[in-house]
Design a protein that fits this description.
Length: about 160
């Protein structure tokens, strides 16, 4: 089991995140077992709730389809409408972002190119899909997402890189 981190939750005007610490601890354990690193110690994830438009602007610079995002600053940004306390799919979304937190901790930083980013993103989708499936949720849309996820090499300031399978 991952050594339970303390969770810093920044929530404004809502108690949606008030019980998130126990959920995060549970999901971090799932991540550890899924990544075959059950004894790893991770730092506390910082989770910030944002209005949908604020999150979309932060991630895409315009309206887009995003519910949560693990930023390059190591912060999990999550749409205020996503309630992991009451909704199993929302909990799966948080799990996905926690996978990125653990990846960053385990690998000493953010992905530095598209190949590494794609591997991390696909691993997060696979762990999320398996967890949802194990909890009785049809995860087939995530399986499709794993196959279609793409990387923007401009995000890394480098030339495009192709992934070797």
């Amino acid at each position: 089991m991952f050594k339970g981190p303390q969770v810093a939750v920044v929530a404004t005007g809502s108690d949606v995140m008030s019980t998130i610490a126990s959920i995060v601890a549970e999901l971090i354990s799932v991540v550890g077992l899924s990544m075959n690193s059950p004894a790893m110690v991770v730092s506390q994830p910082v989770i910030r709730q944002l209005d949908a438009s604020e999150l979309q602007h932060k991630v895409c610079g315009k309206p887009c389809r995003v519910l949560a995002w693990y930023g390059p600053d190591g912060i999990i940004y999550i749409d205020k409408r996503v309630d992991p306390r009451r909704n199993i799919v929302a909990r799966g979304i948080l799990l996905h972002e926690l996978v990125h937190h653990v990846q960053r901790e385990a690998r000493g930083g953010n992905a530095t190119d598209c190949v590494e980013w794609l591997k991390r993103e696909r691993q997060a989708y696979r762990i999320q899909a398996q967890w949802l499936f194990d909890n009785g949720i049809d995860a087939s849309p995530l399986i499709w997402q794993v196959r279609t996820v793409r990387c923007n090499p401009d995000a890394f300031g480098k030339q495009p890189t192709t992934e070797q399978n």
